Every structure is written in C-alpha cells, then in structure tokens.
From TrEMBL:
First-level EC class: lyase
Family annotation (InterPro entries): RraA (IPR010203), RraA/RraA-like (IPR005493), RraA/RraA-like_sf (IPR036704)
Record bears the keyword Lyase: yes
Oligomer and partners: Homotrimer.
Gene from which this protein is expressed: rraA
Function: Catalyzes the aldol cleavage of 4-hydroxy-4-methyl-2-oxoglutarate (HMG) into 2 molecules of pyruvate. Also contains a secondary oxaloacetate (OAA) decarboxylase activity due to the common pyruvate enolate transition state formed following C-C bond cleavage in the retro-aldol and decarboxylation reactions.
Catalytically driven reaction(s): oxaloacetate + H(+) = pyruvate + CO2; 4-hydroxy-4-methyl-2-oxoglutarate = 2 pyruvate
Keywords per UniProt: Lyase, Metal-binding
Family: Belongs to the class II aldolase/RraA-like family.
Co-factor(s): a divalent metal cation
Full protein name: 4-hydroxy-4-methyl-2-oxoglutarate aldolase
Lineage summary: Bacteria, Pseudomonadati, Pseudomonadota, Betaproteobacteria, Burkholderiales
Pfam families: RraA-like
EC numbers: 4.1.1.112, 4.1.3.17
Amino acid sequence: MSFATTDLCDDHPELLEDGRLAVLPPLFTHYGRQLRFCGSVTTLKVFEDNALVRATLEAPGNGNVLVIDGGASLRRALVGGQLALLAQNNGWSGIVVDGCVRDSDEINACAIGVRALGTHPRKSSKLGAGERNVRICVSGVAVQPGDWLYADADGIVVAQQKLA
C-alpha cells in the first residue's frame, strides 16, 4: 500500500474542487498498529449502539474500511478491543468512528488502523438499531458505500473512486 494523503490531494486538485475528493477535519486520533490504511468503504449509521458494528465486523472485510457515523457522540464507545481484534482477524483494513472507542491498549495491539474522536470507558447499548450501507455524514463530509478512504499520518481523505 503505497500512497500519501498529501500526494492524493496534490495530484487531484480537480477532484477536491468538485467534491469527488474530500478531507475529513483533523479531529480523529489514531489507534491500532496500522498508521496507514485504505480500502473501499462500508458504512454504518448508529447512535450509541454497536450491535450492528459487531455484526458487520463478523463478516469478511476483504480489505474494506468500515466508516461509522456515530453521531459524534462522546458519551459511549462504539468499538473496543474485541471488535478491533474481530476486524483484524476478518480482513478489514481499518475503522473510522465518528464517535469513541474504548480498550485503547487492546486496539493498539491489533494490526489494524482505527481512527476515532477519542476514548470513553462506557460501553454502548446492544439494541441493534442503525442502518448499513447508506450515505452518511462524518464531520461534515459525505461518505457513501463504495467510496475509497485513505488514512495516514497527515489525515484522512475520502474519494468517490480508487486513486491509489
């Protein structure tokens, strides 16, 4: 996997201009052993409930990135150490959470890339509410299933097509 988010922005100014390439605001903290990750996007829209997150990560990831619109909630964690390990073992490239994670030491031991707004010790509810593979909005940026997400030390970009 050879890309740099800075180069993707520099090489595709027309995509930035017309919105086919977008940069997520620098609000996300890195967790997990993979600082750099990319893949086709699978989306979830949930709020303080991670039953659908677990169900999604139990399926083969095929190198995809799970992007979770958690409503930017800072009141509960949507991903913990068990789910990060599940994602790693099932071939997910990474997870981006517009919300919180927990068990950060366990996540940091996993060979996966995770970005989240922060950590929170409280677990989520398990009601199964939410939607999968729908258009979501993460920190003001529209993300659709099948978009491509690229994350590295400089940031996170989302493209409507594979760029690297």
